[in-house]
Amino acid sequence: MTAAPDGPAAAAPAPAAAPLLEMKGITKRFPGVLALQDVSLRLYRGEVLALMGENGAGKSTLIKILGGAYAPDGGQVLIDGRPVAIDGIRAAKDLGIALIHQELMLAPNLDIAGNIFLGNERCAGAGLMNRGEMNRIASGLLKRVGLTLPPTTSTSLLTAGQMQMVEIAKALAMDASVIIMDER
What we know:
alpha+beta, Rossmann fold, 2 domains, four-stranded antiparallel beta sheet, two-stranded antiparallel ribbon, 10 strands
């Protein structure tokens, strides 16, 4: 505690929180091309960042490293201050990293809830999907992203903007702490 010059004692400032996500010195080479060289990035909880640059600047490469599609040739990724290895898409998901691709990854033959839980279906005994629970959870997620459609709406009927909202709902459904959107 420190005393204020003309008032009650004030608490000392809290130490700065560790970044939620940190990339240090990331390098990525492809045959004949140095795509990334010594790139660093910090993301704090609740923060929104935008990566900007010309075509070929390495934005998508950096995103694909975070999403587990590419392994860096050098550098380090930390989550909550701890070094992590993102050695695949499943590893990224397990670390709470969701990647929303520029090309939307929705199945047009499924409804909204089916797309939100595709690969993460809720089951009720005997391995059957619990559609009631999926629809209930999907309704809440759709409300969070501002999409006012029933979760039983066919994805084939959605506009591009509505599909983007479903993709965000998918990321929220997996409790992602880092959501990366590629050029949308």
